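Please, structure for the following, as tokens.
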Amino acid sequence: MQCVRNLREQTVANQMEIIVIDNHSDDDSAGILRTALTGIPSVQIVESPANAGFGAGYNFAARYAKGEYLLINNPDKNLQKEGVAELIKKMKSDPTIGILAPRLLHPDGTARLSMRRYPRVIDVLARRSFLKRIFSRSLRRYLMVDADPLAEQDVDWIAGGCFLIRRDFFHALGGFDDRFFLFFEDTDLCRRCRGAGKRVLYYPAVTGTDKKRRLSGERFRDLFKKTGRIHVISAIKYFLKWGVTY
């Protein structure tokens, strides 16, 4: 609900269509959404026939979009009021940009480490085990810890579930690869974007808020949770698709 309210407060809200996707929830989420959002201008609620995953849900919703740009935005991300306008302005000014992402901040003011280099197997393993102490240098490389978070820069990929992309380019890429039920679909999309000759640009002139807790977790015991197991499966699919790098 807060995400929709935030989008309705954007300076270009009267030029936007807001598509809310219920990804075949197993509770009354769709009914609650319709009760709360029906009648709000430019808001459309769509329900997927099955929960085929995060990327598949966005692909389904994108079919209903008519605008020139798509803002892929998770419900826990909220942009500054001029955020959407500034992202569009930046993308309009530079046709080489394929994916454009803002800087994300946690409620306590700390930054979300959303700009990344392509992952290696050791990066995935080290993030959630004692190996992070041994391979701290590798992790710093992967998470771009030494990069200036206030500097606009090209990156391998963007994490965080908030970015702008031209609608025709999104469809030309085939959207998200729905073989990834959850996790690595953003890494994969950015990689295909760069492979198509377009840039993935981190743009800190625009900021948004993000919750602090990561769904995948960062502890070894998180592997035994459902989301942890899905994360590992997606990692395996990613490395099988793009090649294993250590």
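The first strand starts at residue 18 and ends at 22. The radius of gyration is 18 Å.
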